[in-house]
Fold phosphoglycolate phosphatase.
Amino acid sequence: MLSGGRLSVSVAFATSPNLTRSLSKIPSSRFLGHKISYFSNPVFSAVSLVKWNSRMVDSKAANFTIRASAQPLKNADELIDSVETFIFDCDGVIWKGDSLIDGVPETLDMLRSRGKRLVFVTNNSTKSRKQYGKKFETLGLNVSEEEIFASSFAAAAYLKSINFPKDKKVYVIGEDGILKELELAGFQYLGGPEDGGKKIELKPGFLMEHDESVGAVVVGFDRYFNYYKIQYGTLCIRENPGCLFIATNRDAVTHLTDAQEWAGGGSMVGAISGSTQREPLVVGKPSTFMMDYLANKFNILKSQICMVGDRLDTDILFGQNGGCKTLLVLSGVTSLSMLQNPNNSIQPDFYTNKISDFLSLKAATV
Ligand SMILES: [Mg+2]
């Protein structure tokens, strides 16, 4: 399968469980001496190895291409002219918590006035597109629901893309956003916040029943995660034939408050992965499901997209996996010293302080 050189991500994603399973068993983050990031993610593992393989095939001389260090953005005008679509991560790029980052409205207006398509992508699955639309509105930003792609929407879109049977149910470990998107897509579901208060009373002979018509378990960030949900999701995945295990993301940490980092969606996914011994299909960043979806929906070439984000292991990898240009902004979780740390192997094409540096165009420097 790999000998074909360039293999589309969607094929690797959708049809190669054996490939991803075997890749996920590789214990080291180094492969034949080359660092492969995100090996714990089978989707990205496949993508990484395919890219690696492509480079090997393409180069003939079998020289591994090492990505050059990121450059400070000096000519924003040139970058803007070179693409037709900007995909923005939200937290750390557009806003921080509930505060808008300086200069964002003017920057988005300028890009729209230059005819650029704007898309907003977030791994946060706690809200639906509609709920995110309200957040943009509250912050005074004119963004339509159609421009917003949250991983809650991606989970429902993925199920639609595989024609998930409408007579099957989805068990949700996650918050309201996932339920809303599943409902909009016409899927039956159970779980979610409703199971947040459920407890298990372990007495002799106790057996938890589960719904045998559950055909998919969707796991996202869940502040009300508990042992009931772990056991229920585990039973569905282990005992219902063909039951899918879908993760909205595997983010290690998230930023619930500005005082520290908090355990992210990856912790809930890890629990279910641990009990089922299965790896999930990841629909959020850095998996390219959403990128493929966007490219199809808007009929755009991925080379005509610039991915703008504040995280290397999700946003920048997402852009690179999709074959897009990438811009790291330092207005979120990544500092310049983190970017330039010798242990960091993820290098965007450009970096700058914040997206409003676009306004100073040719003068934008870090
Ligand atoms: Mg972010």
User: Anything to note?
Assistant: DSSP finds 13 helices and 18 strands in the chain. The mean pLDDT is 84. The longest strand covers residues 117-122.
